[in-house]
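#struct-pred
JK: can someone run the complex with nicotinamide-adenine-dinucleotide? inputs below
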Amino acid sequence: MNQAFPDIQRVAVIGLGNMGAGMALSLQRAGFSVSGFDPSQAARERLAGKGVTLFDSLAELVAQAQVIVLSLPTSDIIERVVLGEEGIVAHVRQPTILLDTSTADPTSTRRIAEALVNSVLTLVDGPVSGGPKAAHGGTMTMLLGGDEAVLAQLSPVLDALTGKRVRVGEVGAGHSAKLLNNLLCGMHLLAAGEAMRIARGAGLEPEEILKGINAGSGRSGVTEVNYPTWILNDAFDSGFTMKLMRKDLRLAADLIARSGAGVPLAEEALRLWQTSSPAIADADDFNCIVNYEEQR
Ligand code: NAD
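RT: done, structure tokens with the ligand placed:
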């Protein structure tokens, strides 16, 4: 439904975890009146006393929001929160933009958008990267799928959350682009891990070799950012877990299957991520995959 949205002042965030909490605080810093909802007491406690109004029910939160930001773990949960009997659609009365920043299944995203066509809700998908640090700093990179006019109206909210944003198509395209990005990131982590093992095995100094790679065409986001920030210093504290990356790669596998493309490299990378499960726990940092060597 095409509709005009009044000046945005009140923004709600649903899902106040590693990412959602930072987004709520960035929105508040930018001058919005921010409310939040999360069934987890620990998540609510982290935000207590920080100026975000915490609601006990979705109904109260939905009644007053002009924009609702979702930062949720899976598409099943997103569908329930949006379309469920006690979900957003059951309570919303005023025109509201729904910005889904979760990494989610694009098929589900399009299904939700279709279900909302005759409602006052308009869905935009804007999955993010940069981790909790960028969520707190309002410097995330966002890949947007949605109507251009709606995105233009959303721009004050996007300004508060992002350092960089790219519209990649209609609703669902943001989630597809994010899955392809994370598939490449998963492949780059494996590839860079192998290069570093070769360097060490050949008696070379990994830190020095990395400097050389980053001056050359073999570099990637992984060699330029992940290695110096979380891997070489053994910190492994990016805030992005193996569990979430495994979810993204499962969704990427679905996307590959639907595309019909022949992708042997991607398939091998997905297989390695899958066989790493007994060796690397879901709660571990996703960068741990660089040290994974399959037992032969
Ligand atoms: P998280 O597990 O820290 O937070 C998710 C929050 O959602 C939790 O606090 C949980 O209690 C809450 N939640 C679960 N069910 C809910 C419901 N029904 N209603 C309201 N809240 C509910 O996860 P995260 O790391 O913040 O990631 C959130 C999303 O962002 C995921 O889709 C993830 O893939 C994506 N993402 C994460 C990162 C990262 O670095 N952590 C980076 C980019 C994208």
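RT: quick notes.
The first strand starts at residue 10 and ends at 14.
Residues 10-170 form a domain with the Rossmann fold fold (CATH 3.40.50.720).
JK: thanks, will look after standup
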